[in-house]
Write a structure and sequence with these properties.
alpha/beta; TIM Barrel; 12 helices; about 30% helix; globular
Length: about 400
């Protein structure tokens, strides 16, 4: 039985049955996995940062970024100042490393969606058959804006792996943040445009490309993938995660209705716990603002999490406590937390460089796994008691001050 549950429920039994599928046979993680992962401590809430800025980061921003054990520099980072994402990412990474060499820094690459601002694009833009082509010759298949890589083309795979290898060769880069695989694993995504046979071929060659990437970048670099996702990837991502060091988590609340939403969240928590207990790194992220439901035909498979953004006077404390409580219920060693108002480092981001005071409270190690009673979960830490109700989206954290030790006279 999953250790998350001490009070079995009909919901849990159904979810457990859904998650007992055979795991994908994959190469074992290379040796030295523990050494390449970020610093971890239960002293405070372990945190993650995922950010981008087209201009150069300021000195204060670099100092702030250097306080995190794990940072991903998103697409467009430094691309205006340094003329490419590669050079902008390297500049930011080196600046952070000068302050805190132990911060692990990941280079963002989408495995499926073709984005601008990359220096490497000069090569693929001239490559025949580099992008998938849909009905009536349509090439902008992703949200009607971006091309999608045809990973059945060996030249595309070689190009993609080569860029990853080149960036990871720099000591300032500790590994890769791999995005976009939800679009590959989600069976319905682009199926009408490219057909079932082509979609299955893309998936097969993608997994081969990931193994090639591991060989290319070596055993000491991190591969963090956006792969755990309820209902939109095979076995919620518990098979595919075997190819990586861990998973970024987003979009866990996407659902058609409230009943489906709470079921998806419960199922996602099972996947989070299972992966974390098996030693996989988890970067748990969630937006603080409301979902933007006015997406029309641009996001039909709900593969993208699009939020409205916080308003000037929005009070997000309830949402923050809910997300933090949910994370703490599931977290294990090498689980990291981020609540955000988007990934841009600018004034529209209401929480950029404004950490919540709860994140600096003493936490301490968990006393054991969480206890579940229906949709309510509780868990105790050395210095905190956590309760989360995912049906009503309420999280409560009782912070307990550490006992002061008497000195010896």
């Amino acid at each position: 039985m999953n250790q998350l549950i001490k009070k079995p429920s009909i919901l849990f039994l159904a979810l457990s049955a859904a998650l007992t599928l055979p795991l994908l046979a994959a190469d074992p993680l290379p040796g030295g996995a523990a050494n390449r992962l970020p610093v971890f401590s239960w002293d405070r809430v372990p945190q993650y940062m995922h950010i981008r800025k087209a201009d150069k980061f300021t000195e204060d921003e670099i100092k702030y970024l250097a306080t995190f054990p794990l940072v991903t520099f998103e697409k467009t980072t430094g691309s205006q100042t340094f003329k490419s994402t590669e050079d902008g990412t390297l500049a930011a990474a080196k600046a952070v490393k000068e302050i805190n060499p132990s911060t692990k820094i990941l280079y963002y690459r989408n495995v499926f969606v073709h984005y601008g601002t990359y220096k490497a694009n000069a090569e693929i833009d001239k490559m025949p058959g580099a992008f998938l082509v849909g009905r009536e010759g349509k090439t902008k298949l992703v949200r009607n804006v971006c091309e999608a890589y045809d990973l059945t083309n060996p030249q595309v795979r070689e190009w993609w792996v080569g860029n990853a290898k080149q960036m990871c060769a720099d000591p300032a880069i500790d590994g890769l943040f791999l995005d976009g695989m939800i679009k590959i694993y989600s069976g319905g995504y682009l199926m009408r445009d490219i057909g079932k046979e082509k979609k299955e071929a893309v998936l097969q060659d993608f997994e081969g490309m990931m193994r090639e990437t591991r060989q290319a970048i070596g055993p000491d670099k991190i591969m963090l993938a956006n792969v755990l996702r309820t209902g939109q990837s095979k076995d919620d991502g518990l098979q595919a995660i075997k190819l990586f060091d861990g998973s970024y988590i987003e979009g866990f609340e996407i659902a058609a209705n409230p009943e489906q939403k709470k079921t998806n969240v419960a199922r996602g928590m099972v996947a989070f716990q299972k992966a974390a207990r098996e030693g996989f790194m988890i970067a748990f992220t969630a937006g603080l603002s409301e979902m933007n439901t006015e997406e029309g035909e641009l996001n039909p498979e709900k593969t993208d999490e699009i939020r409205k953004g916080l308003g000037k006077n929005d009070n997000y404390s309830k949402r923050f406590n809910y997300l933090l409580a949910m994370f703490l219920v599931c977290a294990e060693k090498h689980s990291y937390f981020l609540s955000h108002d988007g990934y841009h480092a600018h004034k529209k981001n209401k929480v950029w460089m404004k950490p919540q005071p709860e994140l600096d409270r003493p936490l301490g190690a968990p006393k054991g796994p969480a206890v579940q009673d229906g949709y309510i979960y509780t868990r105790e830490f050395a210095h905190a008691k956590v309760r989360v109700d995912i049906e009503n989206e309420v999280g409560e954290i009782e912070w307990l001050e550490p006992e002061k030790k008497l000195g010896i006279l």
